[in-house]
Amino acid sequence: MNKILIADDHDLVRETLAAYIRDAGEIRVDQAADLDETLSLIVKNGAYDLVLLDFTMPGMTLPEGLLRTIEANDGRPVALISGTASPDVARRALASGAKGFLPKTIAPETLISAVRHLLGGGIYAPQHFLESDQDESDSPHLTPREMDVLRGICEGKANKEIARDLDVQEVTVKLHVKTLSRKLNARNRTHAAMIARDLNLV
C-alpha cells in the first residue's frame, strides 16, 4: 500500500484532498498542518511514497522548506500544492527539485491521475498553467458584505446560519456566495474557502 503525506494548515483543504485520494483505492494518507509536523512525521514513519506540500503553510519557504522535505523524505517524490502561487513560483519549485505542482483548482479526477503519475515516478506540471503569465498579486476586490459571507463560509457555516448572523435573508446570502465565487474563480464553497485562505483574505 502506498503512503502519502498531505501537508496543509487549512483543515478543510487537507481533509478534502485526503478524502479524494483515499477514495481512489489502496492508499494510506497521513496529514500535517505545518512544515515542522511534516518533517516530524517523516522521521517517525519513514519516507513517504509522496509528500504534497502546501506552498503557504507555516514554516514553508522556497526553496529551503522544499529542500528540507526532499532531504528528509530520502529523495522520494515531493510535490507542491497551491491555490494562489504564480506560474513563476511553480517553475522555481520544479527547478528546485519538486516532482510536481498541483494547483488547488485541479478537478478531483485530475488530482488522482496526478498522484498516480507521481507515485509511478513521473513529474506532474500542468503545461498550460506554467506557460501562463498569471500574477499572484491579483487579489479580487470583495465588498464588505461579501467578506462577511466569506468569513462565514470559512467557518463552515451554512447559508441559513450566515443569514441569521448578518440579519439578512438567506436568498441574499446565496447571491453573495454566487458573486464572490465568481470573483474568486471558485467552483464551490470549499474551493472559495481554500482560495480565501491562500490569499489571506480571512
Write a structural description.
- By secondary structure, the protein is of the alpha/beta class.
- The protein has 2 domains: 2-130, Response regulator (Rossmann fold); 144-198, Winged helix-like DNA-binding domain superfamily/Winged helix DNA-binding domain (Arc Repressor Mutant, subunit A, Orthogonal Bundle), CATH 1.10.10.10.
- It is built from 10 helices and 5 strands.
- It has helices spanning 11-23, 35-45, 64-72, 87-95, 108-119, 127-130, 144-154, 159-166, 170-184, 189-198; strands spanning 2-7, 27-32, 50-54, 78-82, 100-103.
- The chain has a 5-stranded parallel beta sheet with strand order 2-1-3-4-5, sandwiched between helices.
- Strand 1 (2-7), helix 1 and strand 2 form a beta-alpha-beta unit.
- Helix 7 crosses helix 8.
- The termini are far apart.
- The relative contact order is 0.12.
- The model has no long low-confidence stretch (mean pLDDT 88).
Order of helices and strands: EHEHEHEHEHHHHHH
Taken from the alpha-carbon principal axes, the silhouette is elongated
What's the CATH superfamily of the largest domain, by name?
Response regulator
Q: What is the count of distinct domains?
A: 2
Q: Biggest sheet, in brief? A: 5 strands, parallel
CATH architecture label name of the largest domain: 3-Layer(aba) Sandwich
Content of β-strand: 5-15%
Distance between the termini: 38 Å
Number of strands: 5
- The total count of helices amounts to 10
The parts where pLDDT drops under 50 for at least 5 residues are none
Helical content stands at 40-55%
Calculate Rg over CA atoms. Answer: 18 Å
CATH topology of the largest domain: Rossmann fold
